[in-house]
Description:
GO terms for molecular function: S-adenosylmethionine-dependent methyltransferase activity. Helix content is 36%, strand content 23%. By secondary structure, the chain is α/β, with parallel strands linked by helices. The protein has a single domain, classed as Vaccinia Virus protein VP39 (Rossmann fold, 3-Layer(aba) Sandwich), CATH 3.40.50. The strands form two sheets. The protein has a seven-stranded mixed β-sheet, with helices on both faces. The longest helix is centred in the last third of the chain and has 18 residues, at 213-230. The chain is globular.
Amino acid sequence: MRQVLANWILGVHPYNTCFAFNWHNVRHIRRFLERTVAQIEGSNLRLADVGGGRSPYFPFFASKTSEYLVVDLADALPLGETRPIQQRVGTAEDIPLGDSEVDIVLCNQVLEHVLDPSQAMREMARILKPGGYFIGSVPHVSPVHLEPHDYRRYTALGIKQLLQQQGYCDIHIEGNGGVFRAAALMIAMDLLLSQRKPGVSQQFNANMALLLSPVIAVLNLSSLLADKLLGDRQRTPANLCWIARKK
């Protein structure tokens, strides 16, 4: 019953509501993907969702892809998965696909968690066909999460450098808002994630998420309004999304 109530109030990822702590980031990724998919040329494309976990963004690409591959650990997809998704067990640094095999690489909220981001970028460039699309996102500002595997944060300049090092062109990087939205995300996440303790993994307080959902909604909506009214300077976006093409 609690899960049904949580889904109704907080939404189901990636369709989170303003009552959810990660609304600003997920809303940005969802809107970015909706616009980006509309720009992709062709159909019956092959896509690799690297570090895709449960592949929540599969519906955005269903009309464009003939084959959707998720590259992640063995237990990433839920048991009894019915969507037409194929899994390749591997990591971002060691992708079990051949050279130039896919038309699209998707990498959402992954690079901050990999041990070797440069190697991961090389691997993703290797499996992508010339002219193919590389789409992804990373946090710029965020509390520590999913420890012990949370290693870094990125700026738009850092992402651009990584993409240029792999020879990508037509690079477009977009932040999700200003300092007020970033502050709202930081406060909301900090309230709902467990206290950091050595050797203890992150926990999410679902009861607190429901209890504080009205407060989170006010925080999210007021920060959105503050950014609109006081100016979005794009110096402190919480999240960054990008699209680039392989030469």
